């Protein structure tokens, strides 16, 4: 069972993009994959995957109601399947009020059970729902969470439930290694909740060609404190097109989605994008990242062959195991 | 980065105390395992979750006193008398977490061909135990126990690979 929260302390580190791409890569490895979107804001995983039709309807059943044990329907009715096969439990506006709803529940239940507020396991509710009530480990091979960026109840519930982090980081400022905030959060959670949180890997993303960026990436790759299996370059055009294709970077390349100016307006259409080697290389790295998480972190058994069926082109097959061998022999 | 454990965290889907689901299956072969278990009991600590007391309403991120709290906790843990749960219930029944009671971390270095057999071994174990999966930690600990009980088999394997022939 693969479980990971894609998180790093700072905002805008391409978490949502990475969650989508890793989820699709895992699904392409024939792992049955579910993503949970805990971010109620615009530009979240739910809109990327074109899901969550009822996310703004206050009466609609949603994940929050199930986490708080006040469901308005079947849990499995929350799950939608995206075009690329990944399942998603979409976001809902109620996620934005999670803490106040939780406080109400705690007041009510601690009153009933004559228990102190401090004793209430407020960070353990998602864990209870996913594994104890729904037993999702029997149904899925991989579950990923795109949490909301704010360090509060929902994020702690996500980390408590999945226990393993994948941390995308972005070259920032003078390019120092800034995982300190994340480390503190993890340490505090471990001490208070008596759990062990694992860091699968750190993924430098949006790394450009400037010296500062390259140095930043080097610094990360040279540290032994955590794994950096791949870094992802600055791929704004490719990743931005995901929001038009409503899917992963794999889909963008295969269906050749492109945004361009037509009759004075910006439009996005499939069948237009040029096939660029560096973008194919990015897909290879995303696949390698998913492979690393699945096998090195979680011991899954996977044949890492990426088949790209690019519209109007012959199929490409990238076998990561062969890459491994050639690297080993040339090294 | 001392807080980060590289790799996966300690998530375990097995039943906890208050869980009404099936508990993780007990190992079927109970043979001589019991004496090791009672050895384990000698250095036992309380089964109450020490985290409970320090759990509070504020977010973990804002708490800056946790490292000293942790030290306190460890010292109280040592001085708390063991509850009887340890003696009454087998390990897989009383534990709620795969990390429970496992205070010693062993690191082993192995050849690829040995590592490559682990997945198959765990699948085979899961099958024998009628479980969905057996965690690496469980499989390894009990593999070690099995070896302790059958040193002659271990010696045989080593001899086969030329141990002591020089
Ligand atoms: N490797 C990349 N290089 C350049 N731009 C990227 C890359 N990956 C994603 N982007 C773009 O950056 C923007 C922000 O990405 P994303 O929404 O994934 O960040 P986020 O960490 O989820 O943000 P938030 O903290 O707001 O949730 C998007 O427009 C996306 O297309
Ligand atoms: Mg996001």
From TrEMBL, chain A:
Domain named AAA: residues: 5-190
Domain of life: Archaea
InterPro entries: AAA_dom (IPR025669), DNA_Partitioning_ATPase (IPR050678), P-loop_NTPase (IPR027417)
Pfam families, alphabetized: AAA_31
PANTHER family referenced in this protein's UniProt entry, alphabetically: COBYRINIC ACID AC-DIAMIDE SYNTHASE, P-LOOP CONTAINING NUCLEOSIDE TRIPHOSPHATE HYDROLASE
The protein, known as: ParA family protein
From TrEMBL, chain B:
Biased composition (Polar residues): 57-69
Comp. bias (Acidic residues): 15-26
A Pfam cross-reference name: DUF7970
Coiled-coil ranges from the UniProt annotation: none
Entry-linked InterPro entries: DUF7970
Signal sequence extent: none
Segments of this protein annotated with the region Disordered: 1-102
Low complexity bias: start-end ranges: 78-87
Protein name according to UniProt: Acyl-CoA dehydrogenase
Lineage, opening ranks: Archaea, Methanobacteriati, Methanobacteriota, Stenosarchaea group, Halobacteria
């Amino acid at each position: 069972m693969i479980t990971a929260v894609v998180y790093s302390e700072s905002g805008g580190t391409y978490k949502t993009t990475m969650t989508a791409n890793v989820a699709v890569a895992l699904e392409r490895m024939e792992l049955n994959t579910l993503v949970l979107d805990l971010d109620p804001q615009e530009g979240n995983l739910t809109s990327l995957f074109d899901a969550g039709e009822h996310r703004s309807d206050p009466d609609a059943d949603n994940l929050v109601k199930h986490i708080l044990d006040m469901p308005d329907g079947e849990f499995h009715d929350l799950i939608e399947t995206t075009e690329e096969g990944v399942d998603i439990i979409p976001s809902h506006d109620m996620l934005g009020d999670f803490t106040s709803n939780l406080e109400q529940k705690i007041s009510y239940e601690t009153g009933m059970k004559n228990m102190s507020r401090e004793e209430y396991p407020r960070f353990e509710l998602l864990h209870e729902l996913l594994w104890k009530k729904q037993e999702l480990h029997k149904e899925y091979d991989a579950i990923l969470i795109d949490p909301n960026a704010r360090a509060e109840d929902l994020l702690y519930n996500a980390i408590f439930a999945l226990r393993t982090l994948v941390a995308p980081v972005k070259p920032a400022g003078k390019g120092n290694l800034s995982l300190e905030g994340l480390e503190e959060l993890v340490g505090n959670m471990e001490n208070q909740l008596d759990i062990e949180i694992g860091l699968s890997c750190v993924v430098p993303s949006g790394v450009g060609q400037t010296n500062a960026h390259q140095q930043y990436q080097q610094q990360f790759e040279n540290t032994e404190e955590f794994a950096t299996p791949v870094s992802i370059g600055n791929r704004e055009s490719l990743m931005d097109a995901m929001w038009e294709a409503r899917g992963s970077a794999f889909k963008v390349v295969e269906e050749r989605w492109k945004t361009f100016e037509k009759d004075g307006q910006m439009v996005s259409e499939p069948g237009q994008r040029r096939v660029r080697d560096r973008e194919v290389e990015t897909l290879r790295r995303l696949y390698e990242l998913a492979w690393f998480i699945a096998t090195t972190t979680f011991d899954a058994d996977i044949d890492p062959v990426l088949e790209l069926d690019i519209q109007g082109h012959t199929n490409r097959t990238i076998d990561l195991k062969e890459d491994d061998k050639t690297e080993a022999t040339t090294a | 980065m001392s807080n980060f454990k590289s790799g996966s965290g300690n998530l375990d889907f097995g039943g906890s105390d208050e869980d009404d689901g099936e508990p993780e299956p007990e190992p079927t072969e109970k043979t001589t395992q019991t004496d090791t278990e009672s050895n384990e009991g000698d250095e036992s600590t309380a089964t109450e979750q020490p985290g409970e007391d320090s759990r509070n309403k504020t977010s973990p991120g804002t708490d800056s006193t946790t490292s000293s709290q942790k030290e306190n906790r460890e010292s109280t843990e040592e001085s708390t008398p063991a509850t009887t749960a340890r003696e009454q219930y087998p390990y897989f029944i009383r534990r709620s977490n795969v990390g429970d009671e496992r205070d010693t971390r062993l690191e082993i270095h192995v050849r690829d061909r040995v590592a490559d057999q682990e997945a198959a071994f765990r699948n085979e174990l899961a099958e024998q135990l009628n479980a969905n999966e057996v965690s690496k930690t469980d499989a390894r600990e009990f593999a070690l126990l099995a070896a302790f009980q059958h040193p002659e088999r271990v010696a045989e394997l080593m001899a086969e690979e030329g141990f002591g022939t020089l």
